[in-house]
Task: inverse folding
């Protein structure tokens, strides 16, 4: 019995001490960069010549920006240009830099019941899905993907209220699996799609509409609002991401030989 | 069906190969839940004892409150704790959000009412003469309390096993206040939620096997100890 107590005490002590050595950087990022495996790949390379530990919290873009606003993380990597612009404007974040981009695509059942693949624009495609009242999975979680989807519906001047419109409220991986199980259409970033498509009973039905470009940006939490953030550590990681070295790593990341993200730090 | 079997056997293989990431996740679960239980145990037993043996105004209100807390969903505990621990919240300066201590606090809140409720009924069911006898034989109050604890040890052990089962299997609070950070706050349940999202069922199943085995071992040993003690007591 005494031994058991000692063991439990040790567990408590070790738990507390593991927290004390916290020279770490907290990055809130989107489920798309995490579920695709890009983040693991980046961190593997980063930790090769850096001692800072990057702790990743993967949530939707809306939640990530909220965490940064509250000072609960040190930096964010997100993909919602409008929300990010507002975030910088309000002084919540500083030094926003574009890191990479990929694009959104529409995926759906192999037999394409709403005949989306014959449409050339994404608005046309969404319109067809709504008109045929086919099932469509929306993220519904205020993520970058969800914001983009709502923007497209708005552009169509259409309120997505058809009965096939389902909100999953989950990450991109969960939503793709849901679409696969339900035989539904959904909008996804190409990275997560390429990472998961072998496990899904879905096909890409629309891609390469210029309106579907999906840029990712890294933003540091404003140290003037939150003096406790690890600004130097966050900055070091952000600088590495946009450095030639970090950009090469991003461009090298492949799944089944396909490039998932295109580095874009030097495009401006 | 063969797909299911394939996933299951791959999961077993991953467990048996001693995959360090997998066992690291299991370690997080155990250290967090054991710490929470360890911290909550004595205060909870004391509360249960006081509620069983002392009469004071508002006693029934405390008991009903604790009983309703039993039904509070783990995500609600997570949400409240998140708001308290966030930098924007009143306890933000403690810098606890997205750490193991935050997960431990959440699990303490979850297992405390359960431990109180179960120990209360254990103390109520115990023979009241135990305390009186111990006191007449010259035991100090704390010695008498220990004697009583010993008398109801199996009921208390059942409480501990049930409480441990509840907190090691909870996902809502751990996900919200822990943040599912690899090597730090990713435990069995949050990892299963993440891996399912990625369609990686093998690791999810492997972790599920650990949880099931744990439940089985705990409950079988509890049952064995109880039946063993009954045999001793009745001398057969």
Result:
């Amino acid at each position: 019995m005494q031994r058991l107590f000692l063991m439990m005490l040790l567990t408590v002590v070790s738990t507390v001490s593991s927290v004390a050595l916290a020279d770490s950087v907290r990055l809130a990022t989107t489920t798309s960069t995490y579920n695709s495996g890009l983040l693991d790949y980046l961190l593997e390379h980063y930790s090769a010549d850096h001692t800072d530990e990057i702790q990743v919290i993967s949530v939707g873009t809306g939640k990530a920006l909220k965490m940064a606003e509250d000072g609960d993380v040190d930096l964010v990597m997100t993909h919602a240009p409008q929300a990010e612009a507002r975030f910088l404007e309000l002084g919540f974040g500083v030094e926003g830099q574009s890191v990479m981009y990929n694009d959104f695509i529409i995926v759906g059942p192999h037999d394409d019941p709403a005949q989306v693949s014959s449409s050339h624009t994404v608005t046309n495609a969404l319109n067809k899905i709504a008109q045929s009242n086919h099932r469509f999975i929306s993220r519904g979680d205020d993520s970058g993907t969800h914001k983009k989807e709502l923007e497209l519906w708005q552009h169509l001047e259409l309120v997505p209220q058809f009965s096939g419109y389902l909100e999953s409220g989950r990450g991109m991986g969960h939503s793709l699996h849901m679409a696969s199980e339900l035989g539904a259409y959904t909008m996804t970033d190409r990275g997560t799609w390429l990472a998961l498509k072998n496990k899904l009973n879905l096909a890409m039905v629309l891609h390469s509409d210029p309106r579907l470009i999906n840029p990712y940006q890294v933003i540091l939490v404003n140290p003037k609002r939150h003096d406790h953030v690890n600004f130097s550590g966050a900055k070091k990681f952000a600088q590495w991401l946009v450095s030639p070295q970090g950009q090469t790593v991003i461009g090298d990341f492949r799944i089944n030989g396909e490039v998932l993200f295109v580095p874009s730090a030097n495009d401006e | 069906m063969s797909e299911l079997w394939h996933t299951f056997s791959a999961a077993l293989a991953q467990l048996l190969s001693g995959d360090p990431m997998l066992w690291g996740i299991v370690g997080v679960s155990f250290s967090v839940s054991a710490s929470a239980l360890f911290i909550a145990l004595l205060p909870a037993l004391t509360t249960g004892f006081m509620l069983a043996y002392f009469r004071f105004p508002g006693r029934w209100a405390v008991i009903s409150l604790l009983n309703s807390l039993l039904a509070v969903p783990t995500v609600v505990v997570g949400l409240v704790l998140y708001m308290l621990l966030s930098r924007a919240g009143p306890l933000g300066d403690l810098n606890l959000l997205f750490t193991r201590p935050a997960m431990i606090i959440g699990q303490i809140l979850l297992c405390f009412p359960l431990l109180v409720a179960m120990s209360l009924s254990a103390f109520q069911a115990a023979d009241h003469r135990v305390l009186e006898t111990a006191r007449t034989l010259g035991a100090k109050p704390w010695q008498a309390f220990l004697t009583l604890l010993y008398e109801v040890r199996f009921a208390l052990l059942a409480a501990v096993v049930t409480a441990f089962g509840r907190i090691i299997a909870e996902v809502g609070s751990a996900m919200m206040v822990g943040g599912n950070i690899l090597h730090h706050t990713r435990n069995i349940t949050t990892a299963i939620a993440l891996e399912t999202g990625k369609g990686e069922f093998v690791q999810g199943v492997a972790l599920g096997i650990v949880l099931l085995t744990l439940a089985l071992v705990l409950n079988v040993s509890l049952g064995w100890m109880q039946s063993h003690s009954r045999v001793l007591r009745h001398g057969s």
